[in-house]
Recover the amino acids of this structure.
């Protein structure tokens, strides 16, 4: 098949979870199909990496852009049927570049990442079957954000207005999609229950590049003192909330039992709240690092106290590849098929999570079991090579039911504003 892949950013360098997913699944598609790529480059981020993608794609076009200013509530935002988080991606230069690619490519289907780009296919470009790969289900994510984050009263009111429109938009995108790909069964069940029972949904979890993340890739020894690590982008709300919960309610319980505990917080762009944790005894906030693997190897355990679900769980599969034991919430590990007490430890309440961390740090034999079983799960089920093949296999003509040259226009979903 000939596919146009449309990304909202250039997924390179590989320094964010979503970048890993998009980059490796794109390579998987390109092994069996002819793939052209159009990707947006805000402030020229990733713009100089076109040669990386030209190694396995046909045409590669990066569109430099800047987001428009956020719409004022009255009159533009309130009168726009698009939620503001989607309208922020309504960019004429992007529409023109997409039109040019579509007019010259003779594609069998269009594969987009995330629903911010689906707006370009709800009124126009209806002749091409649309497939949506989701790093998260936006409606699910924003509902959980609203529940967990400390927003001001004004922000909460604006969020509710956005959510009402997002619900309608999600349904319009589902109606326009030939099928959607999500990261886990929790994303699938949410989509089925709240968005659409009709749109086909396939689950492809996040994986790990075992040629890069493996125990032999770092010579770093385990720290002498009991050490836990938390990895991720430190300006991302689910990670900020996870650390807030851990330090406000869990850390003291673990520290009381293990006074020599060390905590490594590793990830780019820490906000002031995250930086402040570095004042605590035994806590190190590194900021961005050139290579996260030595920190995985230093840690006895990775902690994943995530309470806002949906989307990527790269920190867990990377830990598995590096043979570092993991303690997570159920939400944090959803979609990976890991088993409590076998290849991961799970705890969802303050006490349970603290207990699992204490148990893992205090039991070398259990940690060894988790390490061995974890890397086996990564090798057999969660390698990017295998997951990329799963996505490629979805693109059979039998599965999509595509004509050789699609020409019929699908009915237009009900949505007022947008391209």
């Amino acid at each position: 098949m000939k596919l146009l892949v449309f990304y909202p950013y250039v997924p390179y360098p590989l320094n964010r979870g979503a970048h890993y997913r998009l980059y490796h699944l794109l390579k998987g598609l390109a092994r069996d199909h002819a793939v052209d790529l159009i990707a947006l480059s805000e402030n020229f981020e990733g713009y100089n990496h076109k040669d990386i993608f030209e190694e396995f794609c046909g045409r590669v076009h990066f569109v430099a852009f800047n987001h428009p200013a956020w719409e004022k509530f009255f009159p533009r935002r309130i009168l726009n049927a698009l939620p503001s988080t989607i309208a922020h991606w309504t960019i004429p230069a992007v529409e023109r570049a997409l039109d040019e690619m579509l007019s010259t490519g003779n594609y069998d289907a269009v594969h987009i990442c995330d629903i911010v780009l689906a707006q370009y296919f709800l009124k126009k470009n209806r002749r091409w079957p649309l497939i949506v790969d989701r790093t998260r289900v936006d409606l699910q994510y924003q509902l959980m954000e609203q529940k967990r984050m400390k927003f001001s009263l004004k922000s909460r009111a604006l969020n509710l207005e956005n959510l009402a429109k997002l619900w309608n938009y999600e349904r319009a995108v589902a109606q326009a999609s030939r099928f959607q790909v999500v990261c886990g069964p929790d994303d699938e069940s949410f989509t089925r229950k709240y968005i659409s029972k009709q749109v086909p949904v396939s689950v492809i979890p996040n994986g790990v590049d075992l040629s890069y993340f493996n125990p032999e890739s770092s010579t770093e020894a385990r720290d002498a003192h009991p050490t836990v690590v938390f990895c991720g982008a430190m300006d991302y709300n689910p990670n900020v909330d996870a650390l807030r919960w851990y330090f406000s309610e869990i850390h003291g319980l673990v520290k009381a039992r293990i006074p020599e505990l060390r905590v490594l917080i590793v990830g780019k762009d820490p906000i002031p709240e995250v930086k402040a944790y570095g004042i605590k005894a035994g806590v190190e906030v590194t900021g961005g690092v050139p290579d996260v693997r030595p920190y995985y190897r230093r840690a006895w355990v990775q902690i994943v106290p995530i309470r806002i679900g949906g989307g990527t769980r790269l920190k867990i599969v990377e830990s598995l590849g590096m043979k570092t034991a993991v303690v997570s919430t159920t939400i944090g590990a959803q979609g990976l098929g890991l088993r409590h007490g076998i290849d991961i430890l799970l705890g969802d309440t303050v006490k349970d999570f603290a207990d699992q961390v204490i148990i893992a740090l205090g039991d070398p034999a259990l940690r060894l079991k988790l390490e061995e079983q974890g890397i086996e799960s990564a090798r057999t089920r969660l390698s990017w090579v295998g997951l990329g093949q799963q996505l490629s296999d979805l693109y059979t003509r039998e599965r999509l039911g595509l004509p050789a040259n699609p020409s019929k226009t699908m009915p237009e979903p009900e949505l007022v504003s947008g391209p």
Observations:
- The chain has two domains: 2-207+384-400, 215-381.
